[in-house]
Amino acid sequence: MKDSMAHGKFDGPALKLHAEDIQKLRKIGVHWRVDGEGPSVVLVWLQGHINSHTPDQCKVELKDGNFVVTINKCQNIPGGNTWITTGLYVMVIGEVDSTDGSINAVKIADLTTTTNTNTIHKQTWMMEVTEAKAVVTENPHLFFP
């Protein structure tokens, strides 16, 4: 039986990237790529502190190191967005907007609820992203058929 499901944004993994990488997204044809190279970026996994947010919490500025990226459409996340406050350390799964390369929230999770976990998430994030990029670069066929 042939698979009749249409291909969509959840067919591949969310790529672990830094805010700096988001600023380097370039559109090549219909695909967004970091520095115009590598795999097509559809979903991203980011982590950082909420630097600021709009009064309705629909737009968040996420700070990862020295770089800030804006996350839009936070009102669409599961569980609502009323808990979003400045200073939280969060994980964001976001979709790259096909028109302008901005990031639209799919999921945001608060990683600050447990002090020990928060420290571990922050301390390991740099290496997690480095490792994930290496794995994807060396084995793109495993992630992007």
UniProtKB/TrEMBL annotation:
It comes from the Eukaryota. Coiled coil: none annotated. InterPro entries: NA-bd_OB-fold (IPR012340), RMI2 (IPR032245). Pfam families: RMI2 (PF16100). One of its GO terms (biological process) is negative regulation of double-strand break repair via homologous recombination. One of its GO terms (cellular component) is nuclear speck. This is RecQ-mediated genome instability protein 2.
